[in-house]
Every structure is written in structure tokens, then in C-alpha cells.
Amino acid sequence: MKTIFLDVKFKGGLGNQLFQYANARCICLKNNIPYLLFNTDNYKFESLDRKFSLLNYPIKGKLIECNVIAKNFRVGTKANKILSSLGFYGRVEECDFKKQKIILGHKPFTSLIGYWQSDYYFKDIRPQLLKELTPIEIPALPLCMALPNTVAVHVRRKDYLDEGRYGFLGTNYYNMAMAKIQCFITDANFIFFSDDLDWCRNTFDKKEYLFFNEPGWEKDYLQLYLMSQCKHQVIANSSFSWWGAWLNNNDNKIIIRPAKPFKDKDLEHESYYPEDWISINND
Questions:
Q1: What is the pLDDT of residues 255-272, one digit of tens each?
Q2: Which one, of 184, 191, 203, 186, lies nearest residue 234 by Cα?
Q3: In the structure, what pLDDT confidence band is assigned to residue 102 with cuts at 50, 70 and 90?
Q4: What is the mean pLDDT of residues 59-82?
């Protein structure tokens, strides 16, 4: 038997959803799995009011909207118990943020569970993902994108101020990161993207800095796209930021990232960052 249905149990915000989709898409392509299913059960109990956001992209797969189908993949339901007893249902789960070989186990119905925060799982299909993770509808690009050597600077601040496991990176990191960029590019144009633009304006007050707040671009997937269209990136310690850099298709891009993305070391995948991204100390 082979896997026919791959059920992805999505969780987290947009950045995490992109990791989960990319891994599942790669598994399907490499194993000729005909049906990729998007399971959004976790969002029924989402405390942070996050939603499944990938339908804004031309992704390949189907959203599970029928409860009868969903029950096949819900552990504890009668349907799932029957499939499991017949050897037709299996689960592939991530182990402790470490690289692992994914073995499907030849179960027709298989669930994929985890964050999979490394391009170790999907870099082989990068050209495919660049197409599928471009939004379906994109407004006319703002004028700032016509500037030479644009650098997206992503600052995630508000929720990290009280989150002990992640931690806000701080001004020193961003100042050092921008200085590092200027070692390579003398005419860099820094464009700030942030959940706290007022703080950014007051903290990074050089007149040449730009702070992105264009009408029509408020949605997260559009801001992510625009970040990826900049020539270079200074990223925050977030999966959203990670994808803004990874989807950058500039062959000569410079990506600056924090040396220690999280205060809690247990949260970092052992191959979270691509090797060619430049680390800056953020202690």
C-alpha cells in the first residue's frame, strides 16, 4: 500500500503554515501522493485568533470542509479507529526540532504533524514553491520598491515584549545588522516593516529610512510578499520574517539574521537558518 491522502494538521500563524505546506508539498511530489488535504481543526481552538491563511496563494491541495472526511483523521473517532485497526491510518510527527528522515509507513490515510521549520525538508522544490507561494492577487507595487538596493527590515516587537521564550531582539541588533549591510552596499535603502511602526520611527530616526504603511497592503500575506521583493533583508526572530527572506529570488541577496533567535534554545530547529545567511550577535 502507498499513501493516498496526506492530511496536514496546520497550526500557528502564516509563517508556520508556510513551513507546514512546503514540507507536505515536497513529500507529495517525491512520493506521488495524489491528495494533499488541509486540516484546520486546530484553529477552532486558537487562542490568538489566528486563521488559516494559505488560500490567498495558488497552492496545490484541498481544504477539508466535510466533517465526514475530517473524522477519518481525528484520533478517537469511530472512523479513525476503524482505519487504524485495518492498518490504513498512520501519523508522521516531528521530533524535537531536529532534522529527521520522513518515513510514511505505507498507510493510505496519513497525518503530518509538526512545524518543520527548516528548508532541509523542501529546498529541493524551491522553484515550485516560489510559484505557489506568490499571492494570487497583488496590488500595484508602491513607489518605494523602485528604489535601488532596497533592504526590508522586519521588526516584531509588541507580542515579544511579554513573551519570555522568544524575546524582542532590541535596537543594538538592528543597528549592527544595518551597519553590516552597509559594509556590502553603500547605497542601501532601508524599509521598515513592523507591528509597531511608531516605535520604529521614534527609535530609528534617520531621515533616509522608510517605514512601510501603504494603504491596501495591510494584510499579512501581502506584506510578506513585499518584504520578499526587496533586494536584501534584515530579519526578526520569527517564521514570518524567515519566509520574507527565503522567498527573495535575488541571486545576490544578503540576509542578516540573529545569532540566537530565541531565548529558549529548545524552540530552535537545529537547521533553522540556511547556511549563507549572515548572523549578528543579539545578546
A1: 999 998 888 877 777 789
A2: 191
A3: very high
A4: 96
